[in-house]
Amino acid sequence: MSRRGLVAQTLQMNSWIVATSQDLRPPRKMSKKSHFDMRLKEVILNVYKYETQKKSLTTAADDIVEEVALKIGICKRSVYKVVREYRARHSFAALLTNQNRKRCIHLVNHGNTSTIRRKVHQFFFRNELPTIDNVLKEVND
To answer: Which domain of life is it from (predicted)?
Structure first.
């Protein structure tokens, strides 16, 4: 029997039990390696503001943050960070891009690059670890 069928049967047998298939599923979590873009930060802040307006003044801030975290599917710490960032700047900072980053490999011409690569490969052929000191010693010799 499927889970929904089991819930429907439970509802028919015990009319006082109120459970739906929504209650049986855990909240959807975000992946750990993703960052919060400005839109998501605004959503978190809007839900936080809504919950603070909805709750009374005697409700603890931790309870409000926990409610926001459950609704959005993020951890409480992330909610605290977003709210703290907004309180400090009254806006959200855009993410920094690394598109103009210079790579070290472009500072050396092609002939020297191939020589350095050959030296590093020789370390692997000898089953040694190519540390910077060892590579510099080999290249300078």
So the answer is: Eukaryota
- Please tell me the pTM assigned to this model: 0.47
- Distance (Å, rounded) from C-alpha 73 to C-alpha 44? 10
Cα–Cα distance measured from residue 52 to residue 50, given in angstroms and rounded to the nearest whole number: 5
**Residue 89: helix, strand or coil by DSSP?**
helix
Does the pLDDT at position 134 exceed 70? yes
Q: Rounded distance, CA 53 to CA 42, Å? A: 16
What is the rounded distance in angstroms from the CA atom of residue 133 to the CA atom of residue 141?
12
Q: What is the pLDDT of residues 24-54, one digit of tens each?
A: 566 566 666 567 778 888 888 999 998 888 8
CA-to-CA separations, 122 to 93, 98, 108, 114, 129, in angstroms, rounded:
46, 32, 20, 12, 10
Spell out the domain ranges in the chain. Answer: 1-30, 35-96, 104-140
CA atoms of 136 and 133, how far apart (whole Å): 5
